[in-house]
């Protein structure tokens, strides 16, 4: 399957509400909040003209520009376009005579100097997808044909993603060959890199920066789509099997703090990785046609993404964990970053990548709700919206995932050979598909139910996906609960107080200290026979309102399981340090005593400290900001 043009998609319902919150929230106001979004980064001819000395502001602003272009295209919103188009037009106008786009210093050979282009050019391809103007693609092709990099070193190899896509769209065989040459050289000369094809095919446990792993590991799927052979696809598939085995967290995104570090309940993921993981999985979905990758995208978005975003998109976390009982400047429990406020809900963080990248999550989800295949239209991700095909329109409605039904109405006339493919989630055991109220005959392959045409104007298709409560063991001896696509969590009553010590905030977009106002220390048995499930519809605030689902379960209070207080211990060899320039620009350095979320206690502690029986209410993880999602396990024996 392949992506549709952005011009063919129009989100509606809760998804449009979230996209509007993104526009009106922190992502749509980053230039007001601070560096580097308050400067015209890509509109400068030299790094020093913008006050920069390194490549990284170009990566960060490229994330943001890409997110705003896609947001504007999906909302048909000129106000959002106006945030970034002056910078884009200026960057194209400043292109060197040979076609190179960006400041001169980025021409220098380096492991990352032209990595920002891989991010930025996604915005240009999005503009083509929204407008059909091939001038954007032609500018990209001219840039790459300057041969200012071999695109074989570290993250620079990710440029092959845009090379391949652009080559396919333009029919440019020279650009395609450049991409294959670069990727083959990367895999030959960097075979020890954990996301090279040889390493991905091996059983080596990946230990790599999360963004680097996602951006590079997915390339095999893309090359396979463009004629690269089965070995490339096998490498990409195995890459994510290894992530599932060793690093996946219950909320649907792997650990990345900043590196892949295992899967216990205190491990965290960087918010950048929610965007990059879901983006990368989209290529595996397209290359394999397997709905399990859409399942993974859905779980990551419904849980990890919403869990890392503050109310109404006005702040985010840099790090997010399955268990988090405090979200303040002094509650970062990842030891190497203990002197930074990475778990706090803030409108800005250092490094500045996550605040730019978070805006890509929901536009990318919306853009991939519909995809096109040789025999029809796929619906891999669900959420209300409209798809414009050739002579027909599909309108998807309903309030999934808050209800179990998805409705699709056909307008116009679809050709006789056009089929519709509906994803059947792996967690759903008994789906039903009807056309105009009558049970439809369909076959399911790779989690897609194929519904053959012909379809007539006015046909109504309904997919019913019954949800069930399930329990799972965690890697660190605890248990967690799912309900359909939702991870469930104990919502902790929250006290939000403005953090006056944080420099980079505004009156409209403050930084917060969020502390608990209710008990959270409980153990559970995992028994489901006494569970009480209550369902409803979201209120007018949607994902930031009252949870529409709650599950009541028996529990035991756990005496002595409490937060940990300690002085900051920063490893001397920590990779990232807050230099004077960053502090001047607003990055915070924590000097106060830390108060941290504790790890799960062991079985002996639970046996001796379990208190009186009680009942607790769980809600979808994405509706919480402080929570316990992985519980200590208590045995009634």
Describe this protein's structure.
- This protein is an alpha+beta fold.
- The chain is built from 18 helices and 27 strands.
- The strands form 6 sheets. Strands 16, 17, 18, 21, 22, 23, 26 and 27 form an 8-stranded antiparallel sheet that branches. The protein has a 7-stranded antiparallel sheet with strand order 2-7-8-9-15-11-12. The chain has a 6-stranded mixed sheet with strand order 1-5-6-10-14-13, with no helix packed on it.
- Helix 3 (56-75) packs across helix 16 (361-367).
- The N and C termini lie far apart (52 Å).
Task: Give the arrangement of secondary structure elements.
Layout: E1 2-3, E2 9-11, H1 13-24, H2 30-33, H3 56-75, H4 78-93, H5 115-131, H6 135-144, H7 159-170, H8 173-189, H9 197-201, H10 210-217, H11 219-225, H12 230-246, E3 269-270, H13 271-288, H14 292-307, E4 319-320, H15 353-357, H16 361-367, E5 371-373, E6 376-379, E7 385-388, E8 392-397, E9 405-412, E10 419-423, E11 432-435, E12 438-439, E13 443-445, E14 448-451, E15 460-464, E16 469-473, E17 479-483, E18 486-491, E19 494-498, E20 512-516, E21 522-523, E22 532-535, E23 549-558, E24 564-566, H17 580-585, E25 594-596, H18 603-609, E26 610-620, E27 627-628
Parallel strand pairs: 6-10
Antiparallel strand pairs: 1-5, 2-7, 3-4, 5-6, 7-8, 8-9, 9-15, 10-14, 11-12, 11-15, 13-14, 16-17, 17-18, 18-26, 18-27, 19-20, 21-23, 22-23, 23-26, 24-25
